[in-house]
Amino acid sequence: MATDASLAKLVKKLPKDFLAGFATAAFQIEGSTDKGGRGPSIWDGFSRIPGKTLDGGNGDVATDSYRLWRQDIALLKNYGVRAYRFSLSWSRIIPLGGRNDPVNPEGIKFYSDFIDALLEAKITPFVTLYHWDLPQALHDRYGGWLNKEEITKDFTNYAKVCFQHFGDRVKHWLTLNEPWCVAVLGYGRGVFAPGRSSDRVRSPDPVNPETVHPLLRTGGDSKTEPYIVAHSLLISHAHAVKLYRDEFKHFQKGEIGITLNGDYYMPYDDDPANATAGQRALDFHIGWYADPVYLGHYPEYMKEVLGDRLPTFTPEEIALVHGSSDFYGMNTYTTCLAKNGGDDEFQGNTIYTFTRPDGTDLGCQAQCGWLQAYAPGFRLLLNYLYKRYKLPIYVTENGFACKGENDITVEEAVNDTDRINYFKGNTQALLDAIADGVEIKSYFPWSFLDNFEWADGYGTRFGVTYVNYQTQERTPKKSSAFLMKVRLYSPFIIGLCLLLEGGGSRFHRKFGESGPELACLGRGGSTKWEFGDWMARRKRRHCKRVRVLSWSGDGRRKPGPTAGTRQTACVYSPDPRILGSSPRMWLPSTLATHIFHDTDRLTDVFTLFVRYI
Ligand code: GBH
């Protein structure tokens, strides 16, 4: 496996506008479900029903981020992220959800302040409109996603309110998160809200059917409802995109798309039937949504097996859906081996396994049964999607829940080696995919914090930050330090760090009272040299905070700082947010050393990481 240093070197080659940060979702972190004028969502009630979540946890408090958001942003800033993906709670913005229902000014203000604070911290907001928390009122009023006509209008109206209030500052929009999960888990398997399925033990018929909307008179139908819901989701998404493109894009100048879940399905062995099975699994997980959006039709295989259970697009609908995403939004976690057989329709009648024919496991097992770490699959999937759908890819989620992490102390949990290995492998795979020619524009590990993991409750932890749910204390795990160390979050602040004699005070003037945080990152490997400490002492005078993350030379001992020798050096960053319009800032320095004349070595050996505090 690559060393951290060699990874860090590669990471520097990422495109200049690459967005790296963390992802979260409103219901999983906000809590305060009855505060600030918020209306209930389908997850509020569902998660409170005994038996629906593994540990009985619900979303009432979650990570309390509705109250602790300033602290959260401070931590994100500390992590050095360039972007943050989060979702808006529809029922915070329109408590009853509908197009004729009032907008909640407190909800608007909450997100507006949040976005301002992110921008203030130089963090790019990446906003999901819908991450599964449908306003309960819309479900009750007309059956929610089951009712295409109504939900399309209400979702588009909700999107419009968001573009109007936040689109001046938000330039990256996602309409829906993982429609497959909404349709299959919410209306097929019944394990997610609203919990509908054909299984009458799981989802009984209503006690007084005459009092509910006609679409809700039974407990559900796993054979038809998921496909109806998926169709509504696609069309609602497409309407929101059209609205953005017609009325907002020309002056707000952002981009908009959908994000799909999808893992890679490798054939179990070289039996051609298993290769076909792998493709069927990809069709049912990914093609169901991606083929209409990017290619203009449902996958052939789905039409074939589902017959008239699969809704058909009217010509107007498909014209709207086809081409309705500016990019490919990708959430992915794992790779499975696909075997022909089984009767699980949602899996494309394919059997999934992590066990290879020789009995070994594909990768490291996570807390959740569905997740093993297998980095080569990530690279293969990136290649598959790019070849098939031909658009730049935003990786909007990718993460790992260490097995047993909830059963150990926080001191133990922060040593999240399996998560570090997962990110190490996948960062390498991402870079390899870029080298393969795949255009990749972001990487958002899931998740910033441990949080409400839906039907798993709080026992499954995906965060790079440990959350103590009694005290709400946040403790960074080592995986967060790993991601900082490979410089995923500031790949193009390449700079030199000769900030001496006046350099610091120039910085001070430039960045004002708060001062930047300067950190010197070495390339790993050899001697920790006194320069690090010296620089830290030196700069403390000028900058509020200096952190020498690591320092090392290339094995040879370098000449130390020599007083009185003036040399010219600069901090270099093509990122205009760091130094304004000029890519470099010259600094006088007194560091005598020949290696600094060689810019390549310099950027290699000395990397200055400049961030605002
Ligand atoms: C993401 O979904 C979600 O966007 C995020 O909210 C969540 O917290 C995160 O993953 C971690 O789970 O065994 O048939 O029930 C991940 C995609 C697809 C993964 C469905 C689990 C389970 C399929 N998920 N899959 S099944």
UniProtKB/TrEMBL annotation:
Known catalytic reactions = Hydrolysis of terminal, non-reducing beta-D-glucosyl residues with release of beta-D-glucose
> Which EC class heads this enzyme's classification?
hydrolase
Q: Which Gene3D superfamilies match?
A: Glycosidases (3.20.20.80)
> Could you give a GO molecular-function term held by this entry?
cellobiose glucosidase activity
| InterPro entries per record | GH, Glyco_hydro_1, Glyco_hydro_1_AS
Matching Pfam families: Glyco_hydro_1
Q: Which UniProt keywords apply?
A: Carbohydrate metabolism, Cellulose degradation, Glycosidase, Hydrolase, Polysaccharide degradation
Origin: domain of life:
Eukaryota
Question: So what EC number does this one have?
Answer: 3.2.1.21
The record's region (Disordered) falls at 197-216
GO BP terms in the entry: cellulose catabolic process
Q: Which residues form the active site?
A: 397
Homology family: Belongs to the glycosyl hydrolase 1 family.
> What is known about what this protein does?
Plays an important role in cellulose degradation. Shows hydrolytic activity against several glycosidic compounds.
Identify this protein by name.
beta-glucosidase
To which species is this protein native?
Answer: Tulasnella calospora MUT 4182
